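Box 3.1 A note on notation
Throughout this textbook, protein chains are presented in two layers. The first layer is the amino acid sequence; the second is a token string describing backbone geometry. Keep the layers aligned when reading.
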Amino acid sequence: MSQRNQLTYLTDQLNAMREAGTHFGLRVLDDQQAPVCHYDGKEVINLASNNYLGLANHPKLIEAAVEATKTYGAGSGAVRTIAGTMKLHMQLEERIAAFKNVEACVVFQSGFAANAGTVSAILGKEDFILSDELNHASIIDGARLSRAKIKVFRHKDVAHCEELLNEVKDEPGRKLIITDGVFSMDGDIGPVDKLADLAEKYGAIMMVDDAHASGVLGRQGRGSIDHFHQHGRVDIQVGTLSKAIGSLGGYVCGSKDLIDFLYHRARPFLFSTSHPPSVPASCLAAFDILESEPDRMERLWNNTKTFKAMLESAGFDIGGNITPASETPILPIIIGDSAKTAEFSRVLFDAGLMATAITFPTVPQGKARIRTIVTSEHKPETLARAAEILTTSAKKLGVL
């Protein structure tokens, strides 16, 4: 019996990836998300995780998740607007709002859902979006779903953003400026303060995605708005609970009316089952730790400075030439060629280092890189060994 297959074109595209050397398989984590752990049964130094502060396996988060599961069950059983809003969900939203110094907060199932759901809910086809060219994919998708007119300004180019604002200032419709607080592929910090000035000057809505800034920048990890002292000047703050916070989800902070509106109109919120009790419970424990253990952020930045110096000393291009220079624990090693970058990542893994190749379409053609991320929990000797593996492997492949 012949089998119908209308998806052979996908096989052709996969074969093209294999021929280009960019096809990959998923690495499987065998234990906890730790600085040294096991993927595919092999012990490796882990420089690929977003677990910036080591909270994903912190005993207090684990304990909180277990207790919440015992008390409230394994799942919530419904979407938030029907029967799935639990006391823990509300407690977490109130805690985040207080932490971020805003009126209110809503938690989404993921950071991607938070961005895409918010932008598509608050704007329509008569409106304009001014978006940094390197903004996260979730912002781009949310902008497309909104059907608003999209104007892309050159990366961190505030003057170009103003040029575009000037072009549309007399057009009907709202104007929304969006930037990442920290850009996830290059590790540089967005000009939140200068863009907030523009938003105020032109009467635009100001929105910041702080996914990689939360827990990393600002007092006790309050993010880029705190880092730049912009409280009260950013209308919409988006963050994630799945990186430095160590659990799962995304959130949006702002005015009470913004959050109430998102309760009614943000489609990911309306049509997705809410987090199981273990998630808000572990997140609440994480915010306790952010405020009570400031040494974690101190270790994170010390490790960042140490490892960055090691990479620069070895001669790696870690940005500043064809890409922006990193200013955070995200330290990309720019290779350029996608196939060579993928091969470099495989060689590193074989040598005992988990460091992922980031290639097109995640980054533009010619800007492929190994993205390394240090955490607060890496030991100095572990980072030294990682730099040694990187250097030896790079020389073996002719990268250095």
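The chain has two domains: 20-49+294-397, 59-292. DSSP finds 15 helices and 13 strands in the chain.
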